[in-house]
Request: fold
Amino acid sequence: MLKTEPVAEEGEDAAAMLSTPGNLSEEEQNELRQELAKVEEEIQTLSQVLAAKEKHLAEIKRKLGINSLQEFKQNIAKGWQDVTATSAYKKTSETLSQAGQKASAAFLSVGSVITKKLEDVNIRSIQHSISMPAMRNSTTFKSFEEKVENLKSKVGGTKPTGGDFGEVLNSTANATCATTLEPPPEQMEQSP
Reply:
């Protein structure tokens, strides 16, 4: 029937008790040796079968054009898909998205405040410089104003005063070009 193994008493070495073949009969030892040989042979056979299967797998992949880099990419994509499916990733992503939206709103608010302040400063400085009588009375400003008026009268003739400053500049540029440049090549060819 059932054999019971002796239980190690306190102080006895249980490992020594289990590893000694003295507890086994000669017949049991032979059976265990045969079973051991059989299991080792099965392991060796399975290793050979596995090696053959791996070789066949490599051959199929080669025929399909699948290389190590493609496998690596597929593994990374699958791993990333697994990571993004986890609840921890989803919670983290949601938290970061909310934080990004709040930061974006804060930067937008700060940017609009800075822009408003710069506009206020710019308008005040322009108003201040326009209203400065010292600048209008300076010799440089008067000299520039006289030159613009002279050019304006030479180029424009009888244009009413108060014209657009851009028109004055354009007419000044045209007048300067007309007086300093040679006639176009078409006119030079027609001249005798």
Q: What stands out?
A: The chain has eight helices and no strands.
